[in-house]
Structure formats: C-alpha cells, structure tokens
Amino acid sequence: HFTVKRGQKGSLKAGDSFVLFQNGNDHNRFDEDPSYKVGAKYLMFVTPREDGTYLVVSPEGRYQLSGKGLIPASHRGFAADLAGASVTDVLSDVERTVAEFPEQ
Length: 104
Description:
single chain; two-stranded antiparallel ribbon; about 20% strand
C-alpha cells in the first residue's frame, strides 16, 4: 500500500492510498523492479489496472527519493539522466508538460 503525498494528473490525489501491482515476489524480482522499502518515498508514474491496483508505467517510471536526489530503478533510457536530479525540478518539468498536453 502507498499513500499519495502529491498527485499530478489522474484520479489519485494527495491523501489517497492505493495498492501497487508488482511482478514476482520477495525472493524473485526483476533487476529493474526491486522490492520497495517500507517508509521510503518514491516518485512514481502509475496507471490503473482493471483489478483496482496500479502499475508503474515502465521501469523508467519509478524513482526513490533520497537526500542526494532521485535514485532510478532503471539505469536505461532517460531514467539514467535523472539519477541525482532534484524531485522539485522533475515535478516542475512534469507540471509544465501536463499543462502543455492536458488531453493526454
């Protein structure tokens, strides 16, 4: 279970809780989909599933927040470029993009 601290787009708003679907189990994980840490904070881009759970849109859609910036789950594609980035800067970019393309 996760609690939303800040929702940017979609139906999840601050204070909402949701269940995240994750492939595998505690002993069998994909390298780019490691287990989540209880109490850790994450920036995630999720999409709803038909069963009511949510799914991270791709390995590049998951980042752990740390005092040294974002820690991407994936080190491929654009996710690698966001390693160490400020969550404030990334959210500003997301806000700008959502405003530019509201229908998507």
